[in-house]
Design brief:
21 strands, 22% helix, 41% strand, 4-stranded antiparallel beta sheet
């Protein structure tokens, strides 16, 4: 009966001996490291703004080129293909001119007959016939002009430097007066229609003169082209609630002007210079908290400071008020940040 009791007593004594034999732990006076944050010194001044918008490159002029004569297409130019460039005055296609040559010859014959009739009327001093003969000559001359014009229209030419957007007729096809043969896009000047929010449009001048820069990613390279503001429309689009800003690019296909041609239809990013904001500072977006406040560093402690954001763009914000020159703004975003938190600052 005493055996269980003896076993328990022995176990307790062994445990006490093991506890007493444990080595004493040395006290560690080392403190946990403070979170390291980057800070940025505030220096208020004039901050220039850039409004960023996106849009497609379009032609200044678009035209449905139509035939002014009737006939069969007997020839088309090799460049008469979608996507090809053509020069102003270049012949794109020819319509069979035979009917119009005959009409011109008949008009010239009619003029000759009218002149003969007028000479006879003058010889016989028939006053009424003289007046009629003069009118017939005038009409015959006008018919000649019309016949020459129709004959010239059998060669359908490009009215301006253009890119052929759509080809709508083929060799051998019979076409009528007014029938569209091609859709042309002018290539001398390109335009980009940029939607700018009503808020950001307030930073644009009514008559902006700054140089606009267009950017596009083509392959592995990011290309840019200079442009200028053509107009800022004095209205807000009722559907999209944006203010249309139209910029233009001169000679988009001229390789001597641009390092790379700017093709129509390309989607581009535009950087439009805006009015500067006085007594402001530009900060990284990481410095701004969700409630439009920032943390400033005072004696290695975080202090929350409410600010007024004047402009947001890309990965930066422009703070218009709430900060003073000399403040140290924390631009590192920690998982946990609170008022009075101790941190270790590093330079931004």
């Amino acid at each position: 009966l005493l055996l269980p009791i003896v076993i328990v007593v022995v176990a307790v004594l062994v445990a006490m001996a093991m506890v007493r034999s444990r080595p004493q732990l040395l006290a560690n006076d080392t403190l946990a490291p403070l979170p390291r944050v980057k800070v940025m010194d505030v220096e208020l001044g004039e901050v220039p703004l850039t409004v960023i918008a996106h849009g497609n490159v379009t032609a200044r002029h678009e035209l449905d080129l139509a035939s002014e004569v009737t006939g069969r297409v007997i020839w088309v130019a090799p460049e008469f293909q979608p996507g090809e460039m053509v020069a102003a005055g270049q012949v794109l296609l020819r319509v069979d001119p035979l009917v119009y040559r005959v009409a011109l010859a008949e008009a010239k014959a009619a003029l000759s007959r009218a002149e003969t009739a007028l000479a006879d009327a003058k010889a016989f001093k028939r006053k009424a016939s003289v007046v009629e003969g003069e009118l017939n000559i005038e009409a015959a001359r006008e018919r000649i002009v019309k016949a020459e014009q129709d004959l010239a229209y059998t060669e359908i030419r490009a009215p301006f430097n253009a890119v052929i957007d759509r080809q709508l007729v083929e060799p051998g096809q019979f076409i009528n007066v007014g029938q569209t043969v091609a859709h042309l896009l002018s290539s001398d000047t390109a335009e980009v229609r940029l939607p700018v929010s009503a808020a950001e449009s307030g930073f644009l001048d009514a008559s902006p003169t700054g140089e606009v820069t267009l950017f596009a990613q083509i392959g592995t390279a990011r290309w840019q082209w200079p442009a200028s503001v053509l107009r800022v429309e004095s209205r807000v689009d009722s559907q999209t609630r944006v203010v249309p800003v139209v910029v233009e690019v001169a000679a988009p296909y001229d390789a001597s002007v641009h390092p790379r041609t700017l093709p129509l239809g390309l989607f581009v990013e535009a950087h439009i210079p805006g009015r500067a904001i006085a007594a402001a500072i530009r900060l990284p977006s990481s410095a701004l908290q969700a409630d439009d406040s920032v943390f400033v560093l005072e004696e290695n402690s975080l202090r929350r400071r409410p600010v007024k954001v004047a402009h947001r763009g890309g990965d930066t914000v422009v703070v218009g008020s709430g900060l003073r020159t000399g403040d140290k703004v924390v631009i590192t975003r920690l998982e946990v940040m609170f008022e009075g938190m101790k941190v270790e600052p590093t330079d931004a």
